[in-house]
Amino acid sequence: MANGPEESIGALVGRLAEDARAYAHAEASYYRALAQERLGEARVGLALGAVALLLGLAAAIALIVGLVLTLATLVGPGAATLIVVALTAGIAAGLSWLAYQRLSGVFRNKP
Questions:
Q1: Domain span at residue 95?
Q2: pTM assigned to the model
Q3: What is the pLDDT along the chain (111 residues), one digit of tens a residue?
Q4: Are 51 and 42 in contact (CB under 8 A)?
Q5: Does 3 fall in a domain?
């Protein structure tokens, strides 16, 4: 038999509830700290990606302006602008259509 006094069922249930609350609080604190750490890492990555995107857009704009200036010597500035804008808009439309096709497949209900 047990040497010490036995706890009542109510006391055991109460202690179990306290332990469960403490465990849940510890788990929540752990996952909160983990999320904050990963969010900090993600912020740096997102900032670097944003800078890369801006630099890439600047390079694309410089390329487009260069194409207009190069074509302007051959066909004039108005026609060169129209040619480059039409070509760029066509590429953008094609890429948009491909993106739409891919994304509509992702969000379609599948059985």
A1: 9-107
A2: 0.56
A3: 455 567 788 888 989 999 999 999 999 999 999 999 888 888 888 999 999 999 999 999 999 999 999 999 999 999 999 999 999 999 999 999 999 988 887 777 765
A4: no
A5: no
Is position 4 within any domain?
no
The angle formed by the CA atoms of residues 64, 69 and 74, to the nearest 5 degrees, is 120
CA distances from 45 to 15, 52, 101, 103 (A): 45, 10, 28, 24
DSSP per-residue codes, the chain = --SSPPPPHHHHHHHHHHHHHHHHHHHHHHHHHHHHHHHHHHHHHHHHHHHHHHHHHHHHHHHHHHHHHHHHHHH-HHHHHHHHHHHHHHHHHHHHHHHHHHHHHHHS---
Domain membership flag for residue 45: yes
Token output for 39 = 């969010």
Residue 1 lies in a domain: no
- C-alpha–C-alpha distance, residues 65 and 76, integer Å: 14
